[in-house]
Design a protein that fits this description.
The radius of gyration is 25 Å and the shape is globular. The protein is an alpha/beta fold and 538 residues long. The model is unreliable at 3-17 and 509-525 (pLDDT under 50). It has a 10-stranded mixed sheet, sandwiched between helices. The two termini are 32 Å apart. The chain contains 16 helices and 15 strands.
Length: 538
């Protein structure tokens, strides 16, 4: 057998050997891979630069099982077995676990968690930008300014840097709302949602979340996502649907016009866009401030997206960074893959995994457009879902498919999927022989039945991935609010700047009450290089 024939056989190995490649069966492959990974870890340096920019990627509902399944899904869509695939953010050198409970609930919601990772304070379920003294739906404490907690995004703006929000949900939803709103209830997105006749809410001037974005946060440079209905009044129909939504405003204001007028008074070259063609016309040269609302409610799932009408998450991320980078002082950007969560809530696993893969594409865009020398990128989730990968499927088995082979342990002899949920609208044991479980509208099986859209969150810890300045602080098992503190510390924003220096590095003095010694000595660097060389020669 000639060399050329061997080369062809090896290149076709995934299709010739079910469940493994030809190189994987030999011990040398794994021994060398282990050595390479070890060398990479030994040579990893601690980046103590000040973070000029911080980008927080938030995969809503992207628990560890979702990350695993998305990795396999993305790999299989690219012609691989899938299990060996590495997502963009899985290449980050620093990983930790985040404890996600709200202070009043074991299993959290996305508002209380957003307040934790964006503002640094754990709080009650369903509340935004306030501490635990505020009870959901109750305005009685809103007259006390000390209950309000400031987000890292607002701290960046106060420091003279730019701020941006990109999401596939409504821009007034829980995750984006956590970046700018102070609300006793995450559901108060439009003035139609405010409790009528609530004296405390009126007394303390509690606004709906859309109004807060435009009235009180006009200095956020870029806002892109869905949720147009909360910004429009009832005089004119939606420009896309031609209808007047029940969630449109009662106060008669068109907040998109208000936003444009405010930006004009600030002297900001601003654009409001609501479709893809308008979005494509926006450049960093012709626009300094950008508001994009591409759907009356949430943006469409990626698999259902009209590419002529809505931009992708990756496209919005690219546009946001292009504009935010114009601020020479730096920027903070929140990017949410919000519909991972929505796919799971309906047991539509394919939709959820497709959203997670698109989310990873957006991370890839950010990595291409920034440098780890001055940009801290953090990727995490707010919570998990009751979503599992089960059975003993062979390597490369379609992650959305039926179990191959069917386990002997199955007592009813019916097929089942590798993916399933502990609860949800897909509940019920049924024979799936001949059913296309890879269809985007197929509900994966669940154990406990719920109504549509009501599969629940999961309470387990979620992963945090980080790269860039001070990313090594992301380690261990931490409370979720720790993430906000790391971002603020790395960027030198907020109230504690005792560790910051003029040369854009961070002074990490072990004698300081605010910091720990993170700076490796020159000797330790040499020692690590020597160890790495020894490993290389083995």
């Amino acid at each position: 057998m000639g060399f050329f024939t061997i080369f062809i056989l090896l290149s076709l190995a995934p299709s010739l050997v079910h469940g493994q490649t030809a190189e994987e069966v030999h011990r040398d492959y794994w021994l060398e891979k282990g050595r390479m990974d070890l060398r990479e870890s030994l040579l990893e340096r601690k980046n103590t630069n000040r973070a000029k920019n911080v980008i927080l990627f938030l995969g809503d509902g992207m628990g560890v099982s979702t990350v695993t399944a998305a990795r396999i899904y993305k790999g299989q869509r690219n012609g691989k077995f899938g299990e060996e695939t590495v997502l963009n953010f899985e290449k980050f050198p620093n990983v930790a676990l985040s404890k996600v409970y709200n202070i009043d609930y074991q299993t959290p919601d996305s508002a209380g968690t957003a307040t934790a990772y964006l503002c640094g304070v754990k709080t009650n379920s369903g509340t935004l930008g306030v501490d635990g003294r505020v009870v959901r739906g109750n305005c009685s404490m809103m007259g006390d300014e000390t209950v309000k907690v400031k987000s890292v995004l607002k701290q960046f703006i106060e420091d003279g840097r730019a701020g941006g929000i990109v999401t596939t949900t409504r821009v007034t939803h829980a995750t984006p709302g956590g970046a700018y709103a102070y609300s006793p209830d995450r559901d108060w997105e439009s003035d139609t949602d405010l409790p009528p006749g609530d004296d405390d809410c009126k007394k303390y001037g509690v606004k709906d979340i859309a109004a807060q974005l435009v009235d009180d946060n006009i200095d956020i440079t870029v806002v892109l996502g869905g949720g147009r209905r909360a910004f429009l009044n009832r005089t004119n129909p939606d420009p896309e649907t031609g209808k007047i939504d029940t969630k449109t405003r009662l106060d008669g204001r068109d907040l998109t016009n208000v936003w444009m007028s405010k930006q004009a008074r600030r002297g900001c070259k601003a654009r409001y866009v609501w479709n893809k063609s308008q979005f494509d016309e926006v450049t960093a040269d012709n626009t300094n401030c950008l508001l994009g609302l591409f759907n009356p409610s949430h943006m469409e799932f990626e698999l259902k997206r009209n590419k002529d009408n809505e931009p992708s998450l990756a496209e919005m991320t690219r546009k946001a960074i292009e504009i935010l980078k114009k601020n020479k002082n730096g920027f903070f950007l929140l990017v949410e893959g919000g519909r991972i969560d929505h796919g799971h809530h309906d047991n539509f696993a394919k939709l959820a995994l497709s959203e997670a893969a698109s989310f990873d594409d957006a991370v890839g865009v950010a990595l291409q457009m920034t440098s780890t020398e001055d940009t801290l990128i953090v990727v995490t989730a707010d919570h998990s879902h009751v979503f599992t990968i089960a059975g003993y499927a062979k390597r490369g088995n379609d992650i959305l498919g039926l179990m191959d082979p069917l386990n002997d342990e199955v007592t009813d002899n019916m097929t089942y999927t590798a993916l399933s949920y502990a609860n949800g609208p897909g509940a019920g044991r049924r024979n799936l022989t001949g059913v296309d479980t890879t269809n985007e509208d197929f509900r994966m099986p669940a154990l406990v039945p719920t109504t549509d859209g009501d599969e629940t969150h999961g309470a387990e810890d979620v992963a945090v991935y980080a790269t860039g300045p001070m990313a090594f602080l992301i380690q261990g098992v931490k409370e979720q609010n720790y993430i906000a503190h790391v971002m603020a510390y790395a960027a030198c924003v907020g109230t504690d700047k005792s560790h910051c220096t003029e040369d854009h590095t961070l002074k990490c003095d072990i004698s300081s009450a605010h910091s720990v010694s993170y700076l490796p000595t020159l000797t330790s660097v040499y020692l690590r290089l020597i160890v790495a060389l020894i490993v290389l020669l083995l």
